[in-house]
Specification:
By secondary structure, the chain is mostly helical. Helix content is about 90%, strand content about 0%. The protein contains five helices and no strands. Helix 1 packs antiparallel against helix 5 and helix 3 runs antiparallel to helix 5. The longest helix is centred in the middle third of the chain and has 40 residues. The two termini are about 20 Å apart. About 25% of the residues are buried.
Length: about 150
């Protein structure tokens, strides 16, 4: 159980911490310092690398989470807060899957075509989804810590 919890927390740290860094630090700096022909390829490359880590994080979080739920279920009733974390995590995963399949794919196409207007639209859609997922990720941390008290 401790090993599963460690994997779970590592996945959360990478995913939520990466979103926090991207949204609160990289995004404002890149917007201030770079024009679209430099900023959009940067975002495409950064997100491409980060999203590979997010896929791994999701696998770690869901795999370890389901393992821990099965252990808890064997010991008795699974607490409400654990269910809440699971549902929030599934919503986050669905949002990420959409981001990866739709606006991120559009961003990569726009960057390849040097269509900065379309790239800006795609990046804005990613920004909104990341803001939602960051909020959900932070909420899930609150649920985990408050529920375990």
């Amino acid at each position: 159980m401790k090993f599963a919890l460690m994997l779970h927390l590592l996945g959360v740290a990478v995913w939520v911490g990466g979103m926090f860094f991207a949204y609160m630090a990289l995004r404002p700096a890149a917007s201030k310092l770079l024009e679209p022909p430099q900023r959009l390829p940067l975002w495409s490359a950064v997100l491409g690398r980060f999203f590979n880590w997010v896929w791994l994080s999701i696998a770690l979080i869901l795999g370890s989470g389901f393992h821990m739920i099965s252990v808890i279920a064997e010991l008795g009733k699974v607490p409400f807060y654990v269910h809440a974390m699971l549902y929030v995590g599934i919503v986050m995963t669905l949002i990420f899957g959409h981001v990866y399949a739709v606006p991120f794919a559009a961003l990569k196409r726009a960057v390849a075509a040097q269509d900065w207007k379309a790239g800006g639209v795609a990046l804005d859609r990613i920004r909104i989804a990341v803001a939602v997922n960051l909020g959900l990720g932070l909420l899930n941390i609150v649920i985990a810590t408050a529920g375990a008290m």
